[in-house]
């Protein structure tokens, strides 16, 4: 990966972007993508759009959500300890004994999620998986009054973990889900702009909000932007490590390329086009099958305004929704290449209607 792109990825991942409080991360994204766009804009809730070849047809939306799972302060006890609620799919088990940052309007406040030592438990059976309301944050306050001078009810909380290169092309960070998506759509716009390719389509790279709590930002921007078709970028579960049942969860591996999802919200003609382009460009891909839903913004976009032809491209991710998500940078680099190939392949006015007679 080129140095400037890696630096952008690192800054994007390290910038806190909790659900409903995504503006800092979105500003990083906008600052990076502006030189490659003809126009940028955003809506009331912060869904951001960067446009290339404005006025082209069809209008292609390349969408990814900018939010990360987090916690929010909802109670402070008399001793000054903070209690929290979820912002998205936080697992209390992996949250215990973690360093955190409480994001107050006056500035960041450091803390730790407390953990009772095994010495103070009678036996091994006394340690049960914690519930979210049992998690407490210690910010070093002596009492409630002192804590309230530093934090407020509703302040979001993120883990302290930062981006690192683990080994070779493997990288580790909290919440690659889904800053890798916003990275990929921005990089696709860069590749298209720098290649000087004559596009027929209008390409709109989108960083949308609040996916982790209900796909809300995607619903908003898909409705207002009115794209003719959409490709969504998100993470998927890598299953190439111990304790994962492949007969249940499939066979997805790091280093073997991004995945295409088949079925449901994924329009078969878009998926077929992506497969063909990947083969011609020698971009490695893997395959997944879905049942009822994809669990991504694709579910919200594809039924908007009577149906927007959509497809999902996913990055394999080990240990999702944990502080130690692991990805392969080669898999990530393949995604913007595939998106750019797709955008270049579109003919003026092309539509993806069901091939019925």
Automatic annotation (TrEMBL):
Pfam family, one: Peptidase_M42
One Gene Ontology MF term: metal ion binding
Gene3D superfamilies to which the protein is assigned, alphabetical: Peptidase M42, domain 2, Zn peptidases
Cofactor comment: Binds 2 divalent metal cations per subunit.
GO biological process: proteolysis
Keyword Protease: yes
Keyword annotations from UniProtKB, A to Z: Aminopeptidase, Hydrolase, Metal-binding, Protease
Cofactors that this protein relies on: a divalent metal cation
Active site residues per record: 211 (proton acceptor)
Sequence positions that bind Zn(2+) 1: 65, 177, 234
Binding residues for Zn(2+) 2: 177, 212, 321
Highest rank taxon of the organism: Bacteria
Family: Belongs to the peptidase M42 family.
Name by which UniProt lists this protein: M42 family metallopeptidase
């Amino acid at each position: 990966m080129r140095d400037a792109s890696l630096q952008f990825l690192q800054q994007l991942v390290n910038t806190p972007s909790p659900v409903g409080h995504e503006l800092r991360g979105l500003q990083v994204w906008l600052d990076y993508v502006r030189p490659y766009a003809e126009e940028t804009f955003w809506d009331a809730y912060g869904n951001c759009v960067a446009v290339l070849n404005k006025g082209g047809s069809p209008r292609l939306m390349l969408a990814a959500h900018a939010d990360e799972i987090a916690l929010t302060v909802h109670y402070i006890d008399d001793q000054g300890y903070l209690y929290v609620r979820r912002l998205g799919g936080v697992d209390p088990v992996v949250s215990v004994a973690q360093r955190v940052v409480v994001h107050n309007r006056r500035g960041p406040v450091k803390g730790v999620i407390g953990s009772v030592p095994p010495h103070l438990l009678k036996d091994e059976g006394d340690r049960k998986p914690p519930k979210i309301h049992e998690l407490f944050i210690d910010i070093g306050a002596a009492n409630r009054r002192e804590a309230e001078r530093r934090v407020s009810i509703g302040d979001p909380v993120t883990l302290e973990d930062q981006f690192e290169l683990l080994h070779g092309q493997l990288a580790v960070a909290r919440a690659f889900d889904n800053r890798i998506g916003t990275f990929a759509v921005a990089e696709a716009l860069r590749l298209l702009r720098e290649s000087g390719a004559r596009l027929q389509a209008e390409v709109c790279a989108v960083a949308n909000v609040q996916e982790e709590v209900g796909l809300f930002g995607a619903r908003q921007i898909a409705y207002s932007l009115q794209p003719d078709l959409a490709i969504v970028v998100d993470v998927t579960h890598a299953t190439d490590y111990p304790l994962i049942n492949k007969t249940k969860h499939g066979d997805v591996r790091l280093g073997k390329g991004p995945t295409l999802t088949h079925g449901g919200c994924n329009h078969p003609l878009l998926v077929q086009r992506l497969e063909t382009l990947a083969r011609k460009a020698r971009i490695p891909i893997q395959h997944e099958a879905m049942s009822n839903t994809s669990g991504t913004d694709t579910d919200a976009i594809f039924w908007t305004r009577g149906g927007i032809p959509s497809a999902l491209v996913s990055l394999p991710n080990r240990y999702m929704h944990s502080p130690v998500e692991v990805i392969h940078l080669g898999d990530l680099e393949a995604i913007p290449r595939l998106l750019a190939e797709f955008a270049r392949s579109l003919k003026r006015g092309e539509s993806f209607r069901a091939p019925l007679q």
